[in-house]
């Protein structure tokens, strides 16, 4: 069912922003050179993501590029819907850094099995530490209103998912949460996305109203 639009939208030019994508993942195996993970989000080949491992005394953050990705299976959610399960491999970008070397004690504390590969040793990991993938990608704003925006992105977004977002309103950086209301493919790596603003404070709404009235 299409959602009824409550606010008038205005066409805009030369306006852009960024979407922060955060996905919880499970580590399958890990080495100083890369990681294999399992997630319910499809990862884009060649895109950079940051692996974040939260520990009681330290958070590890390492950036890697997706070198392989596949749909492994489907599972049944609590509401009866079918959810995809993906597996993917990331090759770390900068391995000679303090953050990368912080992986070594994590591997030592959580390794289960050791596998020899051409690029070195890789360890199967058994850990309960919260682990996430983060990625930021840009978008172009096509229309804006007090209730949401229509934007153009190069990545498919799932309807009803919500993301932290940033947008430049004049000289001010505006931080919001956007819920995806529609996503239509327009061409290769080009999607037309509708989103609704959520969790706006009264101050945020006032700033947005002032910006739109000044257009």
What does this structure look like?
With 215 residues, this protein is mostly beta strands. The chain has two domains: 10-20 and 137-213, Thrombin, subunit H; 21-133, Thrombin, subunit H, CATH 2.40.10. The chain has helices spanning 98-101, 103-110, 202-213, and strands at 10-11, 16-24, 26-30, 34-39, 48-54, 59-76, 82-92, 111-117, 120-125, 131-144, 148-153, 162-169, 172-187, 190-198. A six-stranded antiparallel beta barrel has the order 2-10-11-14-13-12.
Descriptive terms for the model:
single chain; 215 residues; mainly beta; Thrombin, subunit H; 2 domains; 6-stranded antiparallel barrel; 3 helices; elongated
Give a short overview:
Helices cover 11% and strands 58% of the residues. It is mainly β.
What form results from the Cα inertia axes? elongated
User: Residue ranges: pLDDT <50 for 5 or more in a row?
Assistant: none
The overall pLDDT, averaged over residues, is 86
Structural class: mainly beta
Number of domains as seen in the coordinates: 2
Write the layout of secondary structure elements.
Blueprint: E1 10-11, E2 16-24, E3 26-30, E4 34-39, E5 48-54, E6 59-76, E7 82-92, H1 98-101, H2 103-110, E8 111-117, E9 120-125, E10 131-144, E11 148-153, E12 162-169, E13 172-187, E14 190-198, H3 202-213
Antiparallel strand pairs: 1-10, 2-10, 2-12, 3-4, 3-9, 4-7, 5-6, 5-10, 6-7, 8-9, 10-11, 11-14, 12-13, 13-14
